[in-house]
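Morning F.,

Quick status update on the modeling queue. The single chain you submitted on Monday has been processed. Sequence for confirmation:
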Amino acid sequence: MAWVESLQKAINYMEEHLLEEITIDDIANQANASTFHFQRTFSVLTDVSVGEYLRRRRLTLAAEELAKTNAKIIELAYKYGYDTPEAFAKAFRKQHGVTPSEARKGIGKLKSYNRLMIQVNLKGVEPMKYSIVKKDAFQIVGIKREFSYANGENLVGIPKFWDEVNANGTDDELFKVNNGPVNGVLGVCVDNGSTRPQQMEYWIAAAHDGDVPDKFEKLEIPASKWAVFEVHGPMPDAMQKVWKQIFSEWFPSSGYQHAGTPELEVYPNEDAFSPDSYSEIWIPVK
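Structure tokens below.
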């Protein structure tokens, strides 16, 4: 359970330093994880980014202090990390639905986000179907975009990226050039942290042997041992459910660790929204 303990240690660190300027790098170090993979794990398990969690917790504490004390609003703004009372009021209203002044008068209801405690379900009530396979390095071709994961930009931007690709026919072109060792159109997460802090590349691509077709770029996926998980059901809910199972159930109990290289979502050429849809998640492990 060392994986769970490391994740909880990072969350505890956030809670102990809520009133300080801390970075995702600082937090990830507490979990002995890369910034990219900590943020990835955290967002899969909680459906929010690290930055959003910190904002919610700070504004929760600010609301409690506003209700219980006579502290000035300008003092609370600076205490909880806002440069101006106006910025604080805007963020406060977005979370709570009322302004700080209205909250002090008892107008409206406040929204509280409690301290996060990681609980892992190891009962295995719902079986996970997976296999461990080894593959040599292979080439993918496709299109890529860069997203920040510091503030959860990736959580919003990637679905929009897919919408564009599906609408303009790029996915059909990728299926046509898919002649490599993995069948299907791929969603590929690549950590750019070593060269561009808090940035990730996301590719929509296909495994392809041969020259790079016009309009596409190429990326080599290194030789890896892969844990390949089956995903049954319509997108996006089925995919999100299996991701949560992987991080909350499989990794803590399997003895495997993420190898730190790109991970894949594999979509076959069929209706992804059908109840009978089949797709896969490929995670490099060690």
